[in-house]
Amino acid sequence: MAGSAENEGIRVLDEYVCNAILAPKVPPADPNKQAVNEGLRLVEEFVIEAGSDSAAEGKADDQKRDGMLTELQRQRLEGMTRIGKTVLHKHKDGGGYRRMGIVEDEVYVMVNDYKHVIQKIKIECGAYWDGSQYAYRTGYYTYDAKRKRIVWGQYTQFLTEQEYKELLSKARAKGWAIF
Predict the structure, then answer these.
(1) Is 60 exceeded by the pLDDT of residue 54?
(2) How far is CA 109 from CA 67, 106, 137, 161, in A?
(3) Entry pTM
(4) Where in the chain are the domains?
(5) How many C-beta atoms lie closer than 10 Å to residue 142's C-beta?
(6) Sorting pLDDT into bands at 50, 70 and 90, what band is 31?
(7) How many helices and strands (H and E) does the chain possess?
(8) Residue 40: which residues within 8 A CB-CB, separation 6 or more?
(9) For residues 117 and 139, is the Cβ–Cβ distance under 8 A?
(10) CA distances, 161 to each of 8, 158, 166, 167, 168 (Å)
(11) Which tens digit of pLDDT belongs to each residue from 65-109?
(12) What's the distance, CA 152 to chain centroid?
């Protein structure tokens, strides 16, 4: 292969296949323990399809960066909800959690691979510190970096003026008493 880089301990056998060359101090593998790798874990999987169209690959990578989802991924993301679930806030001192209430309703807008939501949360008993029966939480769901799991966003939301208007209009259409 032209222009191959030199990597200590790795020998290029073919354009896509590599084999490790053991250092003198490393004992050979025990054939009875093949496929057992104690103490090792898969961190990243790298797959190359032979004969693939590099232009198509570039387009797929661009779609991932631009937040394009498959139809199934989009349906899963849109279906993600916390309605009926308890909202907990972590105590800053690390001493557990405080129950804030139950998600009674939510509205959302989809922006690329983000489901931006406003959750309507009903206190479980009594009222909040200011006498309110409801509190509202904004946030978003998205896929993790490998697009395997849907997670609650940990960063500040970013919506354009029009996207935020659409989200608020959905809450208003449901008759939420915040307007």
Answers:
(1) no
(2) 14, 10, 14, 13
(3) 0.61
(4) 10-65, 71-173
(5) 23
(6) low
(7) 3, 7
(8) none
(9) yes
(10) 54, 10, 9, 10, 11
(11) 556 899 999 999 999 999 999 999 888 888 899 899 999 999 999
(12) 8
d(CA 35, CA 142): 35
DSSP state of 47: -
Per the listing, tokens 């489901």 go with 115
Listed residue (148, 69, 146) closest to 115, CA to CA: 69
87 near 101, Cβ under 8 Å? yes
Answer whether residue 126 shows pLDDT above 80. Answer: yes
Q: Check residue 51 and give left, alpha or beta (phi > 0: left; psi -120 to 50: alpha).
A: left
Distance CA 163, CA 114 (A): 12
Could you identify the residue written with the tokens 């898969």? 42
User: Contact at 8 Å (CB) between 16 and 48?
Assistant: yes
Average pLDDT, the chain: 78
State both tokens at 7.
């990597």
